[in-house]
Every structure is written in C-alpha cells, then in structure tokens.
Write a structure and sequence with these properties.
- This protein is of the alpha+beta class.
- It has two domains: 6-106, Pseudouridine synthase I, catalytic domain, N-terminal subdomain (Alpha-Beta Plaits), CATH 3.30.70.580; 109-245, Alpha-Beta Plaits, CATH 3.30.70.
- The chain has five helices and ten strands; from the N terminus they run βαββαβββαβββααβ.
- It has helices spanning 29-41, 74-84, 140-148, 200-212, 220-224; strands spanning 6-12, 48-49, 58-66, 89-96, 109-117, 132-133, 152-155, 172-183, 186-193, 242-248.
- Strands 1, 2, 3, 4, 5, 6, 7, 8, 9 and 10 form a ten-stranded mixed beta sheet that branches.
- A hairpin with a 2-residue loop joins strand 8 (172-183) and strand 9 (186-193).
- Helix 3 (140-148) packs across helix 4.
- It is globular and about 60 Å long.
- It holds the Pfam family PseudoU_synth_1.
- InterPro entries: PsdUridine_synth_cat_dom_sf, PsdUridine_synth_TruA, PsdUridine_synth_TruA_a/b_dom, PsdUridine_synth_TruA_C, TruA/RsuA/RluB/E/F_N.
- This is tRNA pseudouridine synthase A.
- One of its GO terms (molecular function) is tRNA pseudouridine(38-40) synthase activity.
- Formation of pseudouridine at positions 38, 39 and 40 in the anticodon stem and loop of transfer RNAs.
C-alpha cells in the first residue's frame, strides 16, 4: 500500500442520500464511494470525509481521503472512480498528500453556502432541489446585521443539536467569514469557519430568516451566542439549500510531487 494518502475533492447531490456517513442499510455517499473503491482495489478501502453532511445536504467540494495501492496515481484513480460512481457523485480533483495528512483533522477551514429563493420561480422543479423557497419578504438590513455578529470566536451551543458533541466539547468555533450575498431571485448565505457543529449552519439560517421576516427581534443572534441551550433557537432551515463548498488545507499537506 502507498503510505501517502490521496485527497479526492468530491461533489454530490445529497437529495437521494441519507447523509455522508456509512450506514448498514440506507444509501450514503461514503457507502457508495467505498463500494467503488472496493471494486477497483479488491479490498476494503475506507473513504474518510472532512465532515459528515446530513441527509439532503449537497457538496461542491467535500474533502475525502483514501489510501490505495501504489499503482493508482491520483488521476488514474479519479477517472476510474468516476466511471463507476452513480450519477449523483463525481470526483472533481485528486491530489497526492503527505503521509501525515488527515482529511478531517488537517483541515483549517470549511466553507458552506446556503441558497434562499425569494421570487416565485424558486418553487420551480429546477431550483427547489437546491434552494429554500421563502415566500415572505426579507429585510436586507436585518440579514446583514445578524450575520455580522457571527464574525470571530463564539460558543455555538445554541446553534447545535443537543448531546451530539462530546460532553467536554467547548462548542466554540472561529468564524472567518459570514455574509448574505444578494443574487437574482434570492440570497446566498456564505460562512467559513475552522469547524462546524451538527446542524449549526441550518440553525443559523433559520434564525436569521426569522429575524429578517420580523418574527424575531434584531439582535437575536448576538443574544443566542451567549445562551447555554438551543431552547430559543429557530428550527433549522431545510437541508436541501445547504452545500459544503470547499475544505481548505495548509500547503504543507500537499506532497511535493502532487
């Protein structure tokens, strides 16, 4: 076996998956990728993701680490996998990494995007798979003000599913970027951080949309950032509007011959 792992930058439409993580019966992205790797390598090859996307969540740039026999070059592996993977998964890039690379622990930033549609055609079958159609008008000033409160390091206990993190987890995340970007037909919420908690982005989006529609007062995000539970947080936004856009690794993780 080659001691140096390969990073597979992977895209998938999450609509027909029960999430990233392998499950005994349900269809998952990890399960499909490992089935293909097993066919190609004739042994079980673990596919380790940078993060566990939920059922219905998409990815434009999930980081997946694999270790395969030495005769598999990154590009040869990428092409072989794409010839066998189902049509809702595609490996966009393959790069050889250093021996100590780990797709989750080595990541220094993860970037997500959430699409909100505000025009009538957001209910179109061509958009409703990847956008949350919100019928009531949104206050742009409220969206921008609530997002601005997220920058920096905070405790996100109010924006995580209770009891899904280890009991000693501090629930702190460092937010590098958080902004609502207007676009034709709606908005895109962009957020980048060193780590994310379970359902965190969806809780944030659901709460900010409530504020922008007048159902919650301005300053709700700032108030909940110091809350000890998620009891007052809005329900999470639907999963189909969310996509893992990119996982960033330091340059030192990439092999010299990559």
């Amino acid at each position: 076996m080659d001691p140096r792992p390969i990073l597979l930058v992977t895209q998938y439409d999450g609509g027909r998956f029960a999430g990233w993580q392998r499950q005994p019966v349900a269809r998952t992205v990890q399960g499909e990728m490992e089935a293909v790797l097993g066919r190609l390598c004739t042994v079980h090859i673990p596919a380790v993701g940078a993060g566990r996307t939920d059922a219905g969540v998409h990815a434009h740039g999930q980081g997946v680490g694999v270790r395969v026999p030495a005769h598999w070059t990154p590009e040869r592996l990428r092409r072989a996998m794409n010839s066998l993977l189902p049509d809702d998964i595609w490996v966009a890039e393959a790069t050889r990494m250093t021996p100590d690379f780990h797709p989750r622990r080595s990541a220094i930033e993860r970037r997500y995007g959430y699409l909100v549609g505000t025009d009538e055609s957001a209910r179109s079958p061509f958009r409703r798979r990847t956008e949350w159609a919100v019928p009531r008008p949104l206050d742009p000033a409220a969206l921008h003000a609530e997002a601005a409160c997220l920058l920096g390091e905070h405790t996100f206990r109010a924006f995580a599913v209770a009891h899904t993190a280890p009991v000693d987890d501090h629930h702190r995340c460092l937010i590098h970027h958080a902004a609502w970007i207007p676009r034709d037909g709606g908005w895109t919420f962009e957020i980048a951080a060193n780590r994310f908690l379970h359902h965190m982005v969806r809780f944030l989006v659901g709460t900010m949309i409530d504020v922008a529609q007048g159902r919650r007062p301005r300053g709700t995000i700032a108030r909940l950032l110091v809350a000890s539970t998620n009891a007052e947080t809005a329900p999470p936004a639907p999963p189909h509007g969310l996509s893992l856009r990119q996982v960033i690794y330091p340059a030192s993780c990439y092999a010299a011959d990559a």
